[in-house]
Design goal:
With 406 residues, this protein is of the alpha/beta class. It is 42% helix and 15% strand.
């Protein structure tokens, strides 16, 4: 069955040499929007092919979700002809993106100068752990390392009064992957305006530091400093305990807090100097939360949700992962879609969450087998049949066995 590929990025081709999470997540977002993402993999494949549950080897859940909508070509870049293949693909591409260290790209002969010589209009982008010029520039980086350097485990410790801990998902990779996709789109817009490509570096550490410090720079944002770093109210935020569980709430406006006070029969609390205005509630967030929680303790979460809804107050229950998968909003909005993968069978995928009036994105191409599209992509690049066979014989490229893709 021929895949359907449409959306605002249809016609954009990306040569994707990224592995693991940050880069594949960014290019998956672009594939979802219609871009043709050619995933260049080493002979052993992306490391995420083997991490997690799978029905067949090298097709884990993580890989299936991070690489849907892409095409896979296996290239051995240790062989000279492998490098030549990648440069040939770049001749007609819009973007070349990688997340290896810069020294590795120099050893491979795939620097910005090398790639731009093949195509001056290409956007050349590297996602590195750390920005060039700093003392960490040559160090390896993973989600745990970047979270730690960005103070997230210590923020968790301050919040919970326990040992430092990581956020339990790939927060550094995902947030930096979002920034990477955003950056590539902006670079393509600049390319179309100016007529030439450019080189871009996206450092994970600096990117995540900007996320964290946007809230927590506080007094250190002034010179001289007006106080310490850290937004105190962020550490007082937490779900409130009810009779049978927890309720998440937010009173950002004075009228919302007043409505809550009326709802629980405590209108006099609006006269309390600690809570009368938003600035005071922020400074006294812990005491405010104690007041709210004391009022919620006598009823169930469901009862409070109904009462909050009638009062027009923002509130939600605390979901488990299983409950999130069964959330009625996600189900009825069509967030999940059943997919029949040609080799992996029935899967549950997530739709693009945005809605478009004219260029609604859809990409029904499933996540690829390792080397599934090697021959197809080489043909599109102008290689004749004999040349492809020579590359296969040389080991410069590899293809998935025909029986796997049938």
């Amino acid at each position: 069955m021929t895949p359907v590929v449409q959306g605002p990025l249809r016609g954009i081709r990306i040569v994707d040499m990224t592995m693991e999470v940050i880069g594949p997540y960014a290019t998956q977002l672009m594939a979802d929007l219609g871009a043709d993402v050619v995933k260049v993999e080493p002979p052993q494949g992306d490391g995420r092919r083997t991490q997690g549950p799978s029905r067949h080897p090298k097709m884990t859940s993580q890989f299936l979700h991070n690489n849907r909508g892409k095409r896979s070509i296996v290239v051995d870049l240790k062989r000279p002809q492998g490098r030549a293949v990648v440069l040939r693909l770049c001749e007609e591409a819009d973007v070349f993106v990688y997340n290896s260290r810069r020294a590795a790209m120099q050893r491979l002969g795939l620097t910005c100068e090398d790639v731009s010589a093949a195509n001056p209009r290409i956007v050349y982008c590297g996602a590195a752990g750390f920005g060039e010029g700093g003392p960490y520039a040559s160090k390896p980086a993973y989600d745990e390392v970047i979270q730690g350097l960005s103070a997230i485990p210590m923020l968790q410790a301050r919040l919970n009064g326990a040992a430092p801990s990581f956020l339990p998902f790939m927060f550094a990779d995902r947030s930096c992957g979002l920034m990477l996709a955003h950056t590539l789109l902006a670079a393509l817009l600049a390319r179309d305006r100016l007529g030439t490509g450019q080189a871009i570096e996206l450092p994970m550490f600096e990117t995540l530091a900007a996320f964290v410090l946007s809230e927590h720079m506080e007094g250190r944002g002034f010179e001289p400093a007006l106080g310490e770093a850290g937004m105190d109210s962020m550490f007082a935020r937490r779900p409130a305990r009810t009779l049978d569980g927890y309720l998440c709430y937010a009173f950002e406006r004075d009228d919302q807090f007043a409505a809550f006070c009326d709802l629980v029969g405590r209108p006099e609390m609006m006269s309390d100097a600690r809570f009368a205005r938003g600035a005071e509630r922020d400074r006294n967030m812990a005491q405010c939360h104690c007041f709210v929680e004391s009022e919620l303790a006598g009823r169930t979460t469901a009862e409070w949700l109904a009462r909050f809804d009638r009062a027009g107050l923002p509130a939600a229950p605390v979901r488990s992962l299983e409950q999130l998968m069964d959330d009625p909003q996600l189900r009825q909005a069509g967030f999940f879609k059943p997919v029949e993968h040609p080799t992996e069978g029935p899967l549950v995928m997530m739709r693009v969450p945005t809605r478009w009036s004219d260029t609604e994105p859809e990409n029904t191409r499933p996540a690829p087998l390792l080397g599934e599209h090697t021959i197809e992509v080489l043909r599109e690049a102008g290689y004749a049949g004999a040349d492809i066979q020579a590359l296969l014989a040389d080991g410069a490229v590899r293809a998935a066995p025909a029986k796997q893709t049938a």
